[in-house]
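> example.struct
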């Protein structure tokens, strides 16, 4: 495996999508700031909290769609992948570089926002009760992204990309409803200490396994295809 070429291909995608990463970070921080500023008493505070949360969800969901669409699907549509035939890298290695690049691009704002919220919550006098909800939500959004990336990398038809977008978007609302009812989450957002119930820990374990399986399929199945171009 020509690791130098693979690293350069990953770096190329990181460079091309740097502004999308920056935009996701700025929008994520701004929506979280709106959510934090809206805390307080009164109807306006509740409205602000909902708006900030919706903006935050919209930002990460949109970002999770754009990354595989621009980095993988668009290159396939433009036939720009043909240039790989002139490089000292196999088609399988090229596809893996695209998947790893998409993962790195998504993880930059995902890790920054997740770690930032967790650190600020634990380091200040803010209630920690909402952390299980936030961490489980971020895990679900990562799983959705990995699933969509796997579909785009594996499937040749654009129809599957559309199906992936629809399924991952529609699944958010049922997940939030289910998450809000779990012990350790339901009614504990304003509590001083987080409650990591067995149900929450089980959900986090399932999300971690989901991410691993989706990434494994995205990295392995494309190598079995013969019609690379």
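> example.seq
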């Amino acid at each position: 495996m020509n690791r130098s070429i693979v690293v350069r291909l990953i770096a190329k995608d990181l460079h091309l999508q740097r502004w999308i990463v920056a935009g996701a970070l700025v929008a994520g921080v701004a929506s979280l700031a709106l959510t934090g500023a809206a805390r307080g008493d009164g109807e306006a505070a509740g409205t602000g909290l909902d708006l900030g949360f919706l903006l935050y969800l919209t930002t990460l969901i949109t970002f999770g769609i754009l990354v595989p669409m621009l980095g993988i699907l668009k290159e396939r549509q433009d036939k720009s992948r043909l240039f790989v035939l002139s490089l000292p890298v196999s088609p399988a290695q090229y596809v893996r570089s695209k998947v790893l690049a998409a993962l790195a691009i998504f993880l930059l704002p995902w890790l920054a926002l997740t770690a930032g919220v967790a650190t600020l919550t634990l380091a200040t006098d803010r209630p920690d009760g909402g952390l299980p909800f936030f961490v489980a939500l971020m895990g679900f959004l990562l799983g959705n992204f990995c699933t969509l990336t796997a579909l785009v990398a594996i499937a040749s038809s654009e129809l599957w990309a559309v199906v992936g977008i629809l399924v991952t978007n529609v699944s958010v609302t049922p997940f939030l409803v289910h998450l809000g009812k779990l012990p350790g989450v339901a009614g504990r957002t304003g509590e001083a200490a987080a409650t990591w119930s067995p149900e929450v820990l089980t959900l986090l374990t399932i999300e971690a396994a989901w991410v691993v399986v989706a990434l494994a399929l995205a990295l392995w199945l494309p190598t079995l295809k013969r019609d690379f171009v």
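> remarks
Helices lie at 3-16, 18-37, 43-78, 91-123, 131-154, 158-170, 172-180, 198-220.
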